Amino acid sequence: MHVPDGFFNVPVSVGAGVFAAAGVAVCLRGAKRELDDRTAPMAGLVAAFIFAAQMLNFPVAAGTSGHLLGGALAAILVGPYTAVLCVAVVLLVQGFFFADGGLTALGVNITLMAIVTAVVGWAVFRLITRGRPRGRATLVAASFVAALVSVPSAALVFTGLFWLGGTAPIEPGSVAAAMVGVHLLIGLGEGFITALTVSSVLAVRPDLVYGARGMTRALTLRTADGDVQVGQQGGPAAPEAPSAGIGLRPVLVGGALVAVLLAGVVSFYASSAPDGLEKVAADKGLSAQEKPHAVEDGPLAGYSVKGVENQRLSGGLAGVAGVALTVVAGGGVFYVIRRRRRGTDGMTTASAQ
């Protein structure tokens, strides 16, 4: 759902930019409460994974594909405020280095793909899990539904923005029907990827899933030495819940290797069909309004390395470079936020003494 330049008029583009900037500012403050010694390094990894997963377009209908948006997944793994920052970092890297998503439409893309998906996904997840025994099955099912709902929600907001300031004379009702219809199908894929990812992290380190904190039922981790419970039965899970000998570093290294594998190798086999927005834009005549991207001649534009003739190698190198750029950019942002939180906590402790 990367909106290119030219789909929206100047007032809507500027307005969305202001809204996105305000939303990111709020999330920079809110993320201080979410980023601790576990979620801070996880956040950089989540951003890199979302970048890699977005390169994997999957077929959803005849001639149409979809890809992960990632807002709901990030919200469940590292918290809703941090999730917005994760996806925003991905969109910035994609827009400025890979010519994916217009630069004048950056505010629209952050609004749709970061803010809407994270807020809606987290709200649905909390609605399902609140007041219920939060075992692994409940968390995974809630993750699927949250991700599924978040995608057509973003499509609806796109339609609302198009009604306010779309550049093509197309009936908004027609756009809404087409966008919501295809993005419901894409949402199924989003739900599956989100549920699979959350389930995988729960299986190895349940305490790393932000949405699993405060469980009313303990999660059980099966190990070679026997079952280990993570979290207290009938009470909130402690932040220092045992990890059954699985350290944070192996999880981060393993996750980074998965991201590199997806972006550098698996992405070559992704569907080449247009994604949901591209298909709707082509069918409705909106694609005629698309403007050339400001960095379309960049060294990584189009997810390929300029000068590398081999298509597989070119795409793979671009994917790995994107993962690295996202880790550096996201890791830097989350490191600074975490440092500021430590400074604030230290001042609070000193003043209390």
Automatic annotation (TrEMBL):
Signal peptide residues on this chain, from the entry's feature table: none
Residue spans crossing the bilayer: 7-31, 43-60, 72-97, 103-125, 137-164, 176-204, 251-270, 316-337
Chief site of localization: membrane
Keyword Membrane: yes
Keywords of this entry: Cell membrane, Membrane, Transmembrane, Transmembrane helix, Transport
The keyword Protein biosynthesis is assigned to this record: no
One Pfam family this sequence matches: CbiM
Residue stretches making up the PDGLE domain: 250-339
InterPro entries for the chain: CbiM/NikMN (IPR002751), PDGLE_dom (IPR025937)
Bilayer topology term: Multi-pass membrane protein
Organism: Microbispora siamensis
Subcellular location: Cell membrane
PANTHER family: METAL TRANSPORT PROTEIN HI_1621-RELATED
Record protein name field: PDGLE domain-containing protein
